[in-house]
Amino acid sequence: MTHLDLITIRALEERSFNAWPAVQTVFFNGWLFRLAGGYTKRANSANAADPGASFEGVRGAAEAFYKRHGVPVVFRLSPLAAPGADKELADAGYALFDPTQVASASLAAAARHPSVSISSAASPAWLEGINAANGVTALQDELHRAMVRSIALPSAFATLHEQGEAIGFGLAVLERGAVGLYDIVVKPTQRRRGHGRALTLALMNWGREEGASSAYLQVREQNAPARRLYADLGFEDLYRYHYRVPGA
After folding, report:
1. Does domain 3-101+242-246 have CATH number 3.40.630.30?
2. What's the pTM value of the predicted model, to 2 decimals?
3. Long-range contacts of 27-33 (CB under 8 A, 24+ apart)
4. Which of 18, 103, 126, 127 has minimal CB crowding within 10 Å?
């Protein structure tokens, strides 16, 4: 991987950190220890922030940090981490979890959808709807609301209605000419009917209207339906990351 590739990856990683902010972040020798009360792995994990960030001393510091805050220690390993980081964690008994692809696409396929409304702020109805669709608990609900409120960049909160009922939701965040797509979710009873496609295209269209030239997203490798949908919309894999969690 070339130095330029790592610079590009760093820019996408920074966008992702900004778009889905942790409640607290601690910097440690080129790594970020992100903390949000245990809600979502992305916001509660140790992440390399600099290309080739050394792993020396990081495991011990992260284990102590997350233990102090009463949440499990999780490492999110992108190509920015030094190659030895993954091996050290594996040798220490950490299990590989949730391999994920970061993918990008042009906005050529973006399109408005008459059933999708977009707001620049998260309304109480949007927050209640997306948390219900995601099966968020009461404790997680408070954390999610705090995280959404802390997004400091231009954002789009999408709601898809069918026969007057809100059945799908999504979030997009714009930074440096790219629009990140997050939390695209449809009520379980309404899935596999094209609603995810409608939400994705509408959020991509919002990004294009706001001046973005590309979209990016993160999708778990085992989520085959989402992988097929995004590939059909022109998304191509850029790089992979995975998590390491204690084996027990």
Report:
1. yes
2. 0.92
3. 28/58, 28/61, 28/62, 29/53, 29/54, 29/56, 29/57, 29/58, 30/54, 31/58, 31/62, 33/61, 33/62, 33/65, 33/66
4. 18
Phi and psi at residue 92, in whole multiples of 5°? Answer: -85, 5
The dihedral built from the CA positions of residue 230, 148, 151 and 68, taken in this order, carries a sign that is negative
108-212 homologous superfamily = Gcn5-related N-acetyltransferase (GNAT) (3.40.630.30)
pLDDT, tens only, 104-150 = 999 988 888 889 999 999 999 999 999 998 888 888 888 899 899 99
pLDDT of amino acid 81: 96
Mean pLDDT along residues 201-226: 96
